[in-house]
Amino acid sequence: xxxxxxxxxxxxxxxxxxxxxxxxxxxxxxxxxxxxxxxxxxxxxxxxxxxxxxxxxxxxxxxxxxxxxxxxxxxxxxxxxxxxxxxxxxxxxxxxxxxxxxxxxxxxxxxxxxxxxxxxxxxxxxxxxxxxxxxxxxxxxxxxxxxxxxxxxxxxxxxxxxxxxxxxxxxxxxxxxxxxxxxxxxxxxxxxxxxxxxxxxxxxxxxxxxxxxxxxxxxxxxxxxxxxxxxxxxxxxxxxxxxxxxxxxxxxxxxxxxxxxxxxxxxxxxxxxxxxxxxxxxxxxxxxxxxxxxxxxxxxxxxxxxxxxxxxxxxxxxxxxxxxxxxxxxxxxxxxxxxxxxxxxxxxxxxxxxxxxxxxxxxxxxxxxxxxxxxxxxxxxxxxxxxxxxxxxxxxxxxxxxxxxxxxxxxxxxxxxxxxxxxxxxxxxxxxxxxxxxxxxxxxxxxx
Length: 448
Prior knowledge:
CATH superfamily of the largest domain: Response regulator
Order of helices and strands: HEHEEEEHEHEEHEHEHEHEHEHHHEEEEH
Largest sheet: 7 strands, mixed
Strand content: 15-25%
CATH topology of the largest domain: Rossmann fold
């Protein structure tokens, strides 16, 4: 009997302490709901693993009950750009006081690269995605930066428990992530969505449009014979093949489409082959992280100053190309989807001004504005969902209709693509990127 009385006392004591804990930890209107409720999240969100992700950024009231994250390669040649992009994600959330509707949301910046690779790493992309999917307080992802990484992350988030998990990329341009056709892998895009429900969108035009714009500009420059090089990765091979497709429609002769080995110590033999072909231009389908600086140096040394070198947005930040190639980068043309930061208007101009003040920077990379816009798209989807229901948030991505956004007016279509379509061209002059022009390819040409 004494043991039974003691047991009753302990049960009563635990109940009283439990009520006290609720009174201290919950808000006045918090019904103690579960992870899918529109109210409090039932305590602080468990942070994503520190092996890949920085600490939780949160300066709102109470505690961060939910999370969003960015997933970019924070090591290697792209570091200055991707770090700035992650800062922009946090900046947008901070402007909302880390609150969307009734949800207190913190932010973590996650790294999908390794020091050894100096770029995105397939194992890191996969392990990061698994962590996002497993953490049910993780409401959405801004990323990835690279299309090859996205191919690994999307399906994992697509089949997440209580998902899929919403994902908005500021920079993935491989067409196959959202639609079939030129530039897409066999079976794409369905192979990336195993539960058949879409959870991925992007605020950047895909490479069908960038490839078309580069072909149009090559024609405008008077190029007649172009040699194409690619780094064999998802993005690089895809944009190279698309450039070939559209260049041939412009009656530009393609003299070759060859892989460059990112581990090579010299590209002199490639330069000799291109020179012997009689090419008046070279298109580089790939990313600067893949020994791009050395490639440009050897090409310029072997080809001389009269052969035009063009590259897509894989050669951004342009500062990384200039740093890697030195004076050999001069006269190179580099394209990037979107418009330069000094041509943004309305909310875009306001973002640039306020972000510069916050960061102390004199200039903002175009992709930084895209990271900020991708964040807004994700947060607006969370707000429209009215809860922390991950599946509902993913669904709401496709109801995006932005007016006077950072990038202007646009929608997200049923595939997850933006209706924006401008491509900007820069030329390196005296070690600095100089704006040249913007091109918006006609849809009839892109789809032909």
